[in-house]
Design goal:
Layout lengths: L3 E2 H11 L4 E5 L5 H8 L4 E4 L3 H15 L3 E5 L3 H4 L2 H10 L3 E7 L15 H4 L6 E4 L6 H13 L5 E7 H5 L1 E2 L16 H13 L3 E5 L6 H14 L3 E3 L14 E4 L7 H8 L2 E5 L17 E6 L13 E4 L2 H11 L9 H18 L8 H11 L5 E4 L3 H9 L8 E2 L10 H11 L5 E6 H4 L6 H6 L4 E7 L4 H9 L14 H7 L3 E4 L6 H11 L2 E7 L15 H11 L12
Parallel strand pairs: 2-3, 2-4, 4-5, 5-7, 6-7, 9-10, 9-12, 10-11, 12-13, 13-14, 15-16, 15-17, 17-18, 18-20, 19-20
Antiparallel strand pairs: 1-8
Helix pairs in contact: 1-2, 1-7, 3-5, 3-16, 9-12, 10-12, 11-13, 13-14, 14-15, 14-21
Amino acid sequence: MVKKKAADLFVECLESEGVTHIFGVPGEENLAFLDAVSRSRIELVLTRHEQTAGFMAATYGRLTGKAGVCLSTLGPGATNLVTAAAYAQLGAMPMLMITGQKPIHTSKQGQFQIIDVVDMMVPITKSTKQIVSAEGIPARVRNAFLRAEEERPGAVHLELPEDVAEEETEARPIIASLHSRPVADEAALEHAAGLLRESRHPVLLIGAGANRKDCRRALRAFIAKQRLPFVTTQMGKGVADETDPLFLGNAAMSAEDYPHRALELADLIVNVGHDVVEKPPFFMDGSDRKVIHLNYVPAEVDPVYFPDAGVIGDIAASIHSLNGKVDPQSHWNSDCFKEMAAALRSDRAGGAKETGYPIPPRRLVGIVRESMPDDGILTLDNGVYKIWFARDYPARRANTILLDNALASMGAGLPSAMAAKLVHPDKQVMAVCGDGGFMMNSQDLETAVRLGMDLVVLVLNDSSYGMIRWKQAQMGLADFGLQFGNPDFVQYAQSYGAKGHRLGEGDRLEDLLVNAFAEGGVHLIDVPVDYSRNGDLLFVEIPKASSELHARLCGNGSVPPPLGSL
């Protein structure tokens, strides 16, 4: 047996887990680990801020299903990972954070930069541990990956003290073993199948938990056979083809928008992959409507969600079994849903034709959709434009529009796009950021340029925190405290070695996008945007037949109440 440093063993364990990239900002306490990485097959992606490294690792995990890995030093480096940890944990993205620490056995440096990082990570991770000996590394690493990648995925953390990293050991990595997830009880599947067969107006609801590789295949087969109308949540976008005539829209917008009215009309909701981290797409109100909860874990029952059936187990296996137990029923009536889906498509097409300068959001969404291939990847930062994209950007494939409806943190748009380009170097990737969110991690334009990426970044410029300013106006409050000045984004991009462009009045954004992707490299486009039409998110015209069906289902002979706000 050959002895090696604990840091080398740690890196060997990461290689054994299939790690290809580590994103991070190393510090003094990581130097032994960094030296071990330099002799490994793992690529170090040096970023300009730890938050960027964390966002990149989380997105890597989101796209691959394997835990992305990020690195920081102790103290301020570790605290800079907190937002990314919460982002991965709430968003169910597998991620491992590795932080350094001062020596724990022979420390003579007092409390300089020392905080209890392990304890700090407790509420925002699935597991957080300090490594106290070299021999413990294989088990700690193997368990960290198991926890990060198991259902529900999330963030884990390991702290490697400086003196432990220098210890010598003969330990070896623990090789990952195959394991399977439990399948649902047969009686539960039969009960759910009975409810589906007996229903008259069933609707399929696809949530964040359904956005896993095997689930996507099973759900598409289910829709192809059953032809059920379907709604997605924001983080379920793209699991099923949203150009399908049965697609009813993206939930969690206005309570009066098409998908929410469709869910009101359903007498059965097949709720697949429901995740309480997202805004509830519907409330159970004591009506005759039934709900099937189909998920990896039981429902969190509360006054507004108490399903009639729980199918608990591997989602893909459950959907496959349910699909085999039920044939399309002649008494299923989806006419009103088809009418509502057609109204949504017409509404979206009309919005894409809006004109004006600065550009209206719906026109922007239409241009971006036309410019991106079906497998192109769009990453969104957080702002009011995210709602417009979620609503009006039909995704044909899973994970082709990456948005965060969990932590909803600003600053993740650019890092997510960079990670997506690393995972899928042959695909077109575009980041869409508000000017506020972009500036939170804009320094990593340099990282994208240094890595030789082909990447387009749209910066939507309204010189304010637009989402909060809109809410401020909705509440009838004074326009105060939310406006700021921006740099010259063209020169800013050029200072990092990127190409900068500004959309002027009379310019065609579609031409700028075509040219940027054709030329390659990192391109930033400053896009002045007009949010004065945000109120349109709150008011839609419900088709007549759907209103009449709503009245019949409500049993009061009246049409739905006037459409209102959130």
